[in-house]
Structures are given as C-alpha cells and as structure tokens.
Amino acid sequence: VQLQASGGGLVQAGGSLRLSCAASGRTFSDYVMGWFRQAPGKEREFVAAISWNGGRTYYVDSVKGRFTISRDNAKNTVYLQMNSMKPEDTAVYYCAADNVVGGTWPYWGQGTLVTVSS
Fold first, then answer.
1. How distant, in Å, are the alpha carbons of 52, 57, 108 from that of 38?
2. pLDDT tens digits for 71-115?
3. 112 φ, ψ to 5°?
4. Cα-flanking dihedrals φ and ψ of residue 101, to 5°?
5. What is the rounded distance in angstroms from the CA atom of residue 28 to the CA atom of residue 71?
6. 72-81 burial, b if ≥16 CB within 10 A, otherwise e?
7. pLDDT at position 115, please?
8. Residue 20 pLDDT exceeds 90
9. Which end of the chain has the lower number of beta carbons within 10 A, N or C?
C-alpha cells in the first residue's frame, strides 16, 4: 500500500489543523492506520491509530481529548483532526499502515510538517 500524507502547515497555539493520508494500491479496509510524529531532535513517537472499520481508536496520552483520528474507507483516507494545539505538537507527522494491531507498521507515507507557534 502507498500512503500520501498532506495537510501540514503553520498554526498558532490553540488552533486546529486536519491532516489527511490517502492510500492506494491495496484494499484500504484491510489495514489498521496510524499517525506518528517526530519532533526536532527527538525520536519518532506514536500519536494515534484506528482499527480496520474505525470501531477502535488509540491515542498517546499527550493528545487525548485534543486529537481525533478517523477514517473513510470509501475514500481510502485516514484523518487526524488536531485541536487545541500546543507548541510541543510541532513535528513532522507520518501516516502508517499495518495489517494487525500492535504490529511493526511496515508501510509509511512521507511526512508532513506541522509547526505550532506560541
């Protein structure tokens, strides 16, 4: 599966941004989808994931209540709605796919840069 992330940009603290990740090449609903991020000088971290049909979602504690992951299987797209953003959310955000929950995320898209100004 090929993944293409988009939607990054510059936003002020407290603002919102929505990332999209379009998939192609395989049946989108076969994949668990996730978002990761890597801030400057830091390791890449898990942000959120969503199950095949969207029935289950998972978040890192630092974004719970602020970020929402969703998917539209008819459009082969996964989204990350980011609200109440903080400067510490600044990072390159990546979407990823796996066939199982808790796997190794073998499929990755290119990153999209999100910058939150204070």
1. 24, 20, 13
2. 999 999 999 999 999 999 999 999 999 998 888 999 999 999 999
3. -130, 130
4. -80, 135
5. 10
6. ebeebbbbbe
7. 98
8. yes
9. C
Q: φ and ψ at 28, to 5 degrees? A: -60, -40
What confidence tens digit (pLDDT) does each residue in 41-51 have? 999 999 999 99
* Number of neighbouring beta carbons within 10 Å of residue 3: 21
Residue with tokens 């990546």: 94
CA-to-CA separations, 14 to 30, 36, 52, 115, in angstroms, rounded? 35, 20, 31, 12
Q: What is the percent of the chain with per-residue pLDDT over 90, rounded to a whole number?
A: 95
Pair of tokens at residue 48: 């959120």
